[in-house]
């Protein structure tokens, strides 16, 4: 890499993550992943009830949009203005994805943009170099290894706006409760609907554990795959890419090269056929009058950001 500036100490909080929540980081990253691996052979014998599938899909969509529309496009990048109920709802919905409390998520992600693919980026796959072995290590680090780092991004530096917001403070502090609801809530619903322990268990397994694991890996792929392989039609200072294969499950976040070229844009999938469910959701909020000042991309701006053929992509 050309840029090897060390991350300034001031980027980090002066305290490490407490060992107890840190243990939960391990638990919530690893247990759902084990469930996901177990799910495939188990599904043969069990089948999957419509209730389990409906709960899993519903929670997947709500929590993913909470992250992509809420945590990412709204809270991190300010790509639109939201009314108070929508602001709170987005913070709650994003928390249900179990990717960390809202202020941690936003602070880490703003740091990612500040140092994208350079020293100081919390999750660059290029961290260890460009050899095949370094990239395998880098992929693991960018995908999920980085979340096991106990040092915390300084919220005073990277998320002062959210620190000053009492509504968001309440949602941030409620993260543990929201996590319990998100993981165990489906089991309660499944148990009550089927009036059986087995129904409670399968709903917990599919809509709690497996759903969280799938959404984790899709979200983490934006950090790993979308900085590693794919197309770079826009000029960004980093190695971000567009990966069409992940467009639908990631709710449009895998048009990641455009996102790094134009971080405040409310739409990431700007080309023909580039499906962006998050942008569609923001459009709906705008139509309902809940969101305004939406930063929609313009033809002129996109033309300016397009990579020119004579120009090598960011090294
Ligand atoms: Zn990125
Ligand atoms: Zn971003």
Automatic annotation (TrEMBL):
Subcellular location: Membrane
Protein name: Stearoyl-CoA desaturase (Delta-9 desaturase)
EC number: 1.14.19.1
Organism (species): Pseudonocardia alni (Amycolata alni)
Family: Belongs to the fatty acid desaturase type 2 family.
Gene Ontology biological process: fatty acid metabolic process
Highest taxon of source: Bacteria
Keyword Zinc: no
GO terms under cellular component: membrane
Main location: membrane
Gene Ontology molecular-function annotations: stearoyl-CoA 9-desaturase activity
Chain segments annotated as transmembrane: 23-47, 53-75, 175-198
Lipid bilayer topology: Multi-pass membrane protein
EC main group: oxidoreductase
InterPro entries reported in the protein's UniProt record: Acyl-CoA_DS, FA_desaturase_dom
Keywords, sorted A to Z: Fatty acid metabolism, Iron, Lipid metabolism, Membrane, Oxidoreductase, Transmembrane, Transmembrane helix
Domain Fatty acid desaturase: 49-264
